[in-house]
């Protein structure tokens, strides 16, 4: 399927889903210099990773975060709308693994190729800040990148993995949220296990599982950062687990998680910063940028209603970003007056 769009320099871009994955030309290696393994994993592996990493400790706070302020009607409506919207955005983004017969394994490379260096750097900053702050959230609980590992055909396999995530994973994701609010109503805690009563060993077991699962989710969500650091600092002409690379891997991971843990401990209201970064970076990354790529790549041949739909996504996401960012800043300002660094909150 070849579809032309407008490139930044006046040359047409071609979205080639099937041919780009079958030809195996040298152009498929565009931007693929990486210390990590590429084109090996099956869609089942990636799907399992998505299900297990997204059904993480965060969902234990969703009853309080989503349903308590909105109530049953608007809360359920928002959960369904956001669920469908994110599924659609990820489905759309999966189609852009290949443009002009070139494989893209990084979100920033894709945006840079379509829109130029400025969007490359903006996407880099947005994505890495979101992942860093999200990882700090996992640290607190314990205490949307392009999947480059997929084997070809990457588009079909990525979409199969998304099917698995949104069929097997979503019932757990939303089920815990709904059951938590059903059981405790407006008394539901920001961390659901705090509401549980019964034998002490049950609470210990639940918190231990959340802690261990958060470790898994941590490594999944910061995989793009690990890939960037490893490609920059490892000797990629040597095996990943050679003696020298193992030492560098240890130092990179130690510095990264030590810094993450220090900052998370320093700010007792770190969740507010997670909300802030999610507002002005995660919303555009998830909802706005995929539609921007569609307009650029398919702009000349797409039907008018499709272009109108994607322009609506872009404008609505932009307005949503402004509104949620203002709200997040207000929360930070309010909490700064209540807490001090390293407070036991």
From TrEMBL:
Organism of origin is: Glycine soja
Q: Which Pfam families match?
A: Aa_trans
* Designated name of the protein: Lysine histidine transporter 1
The protein's matches in InterPro entries, at most eight in alphabetical order, are given as: AA_transpt_TM (IPR013057)
Predominant location category: membrane
Question: Topology in the membrane?
Answer: Multi-pass membrane protein
Q: Where in the cell is it found?
A: Cell membrane; Endomembrane system
Instruction: Summarize the protein's role.
Output: Carrier protein involved in proton-driven auxin influx. Mediates the formation of auxin gradient from developing leaves (site of auxin biosynthesis) to tips by contributing to the loading of auxin in vascular tissues and facilitating acropetal (base to tip) auxin transport within inner tissues of the root apex, and basipetal (tip to base) auxin transport within outer tissues of the root apex. May be involved in lateral roots and nodules formation.
Q: Which family does it belong to?
A: Belongs to the amino acid/polyamine transporter 2 family. Amino acid/auxin permease (AAAP) (TC 2.A.18.1) subfamily.
* Amino acid transporter transmembrane domain boundaries: 146-327
Q: What's any one GO cellular component for it?
A: plasma membrane
Q: What terms describe the molecular function in GO for this protein?
A: symporter activity
Name the domain of life this protein comes from.
Eukaryota
**Which keywords label this protein?**
Amino-acid transport, Auxin signaling pathway, Cell membrane, Membrane, Symport, Transmembrane, Transmembrane helix, Transport
Record-level GO BP terms: amino acid transport; auxin-activated signaling pathway
The UniProt entry, under PANTHER family, shows: OS05G0424000 PROTEIN-RELATED
User: Is DNA damage found in the keyword set?
Assistant: no
Which chain regions cross the lipid bilayer?
A: 46-67, 74-99, 119-141, 162-184, 204-229, 250-270, 276-297, 309-333
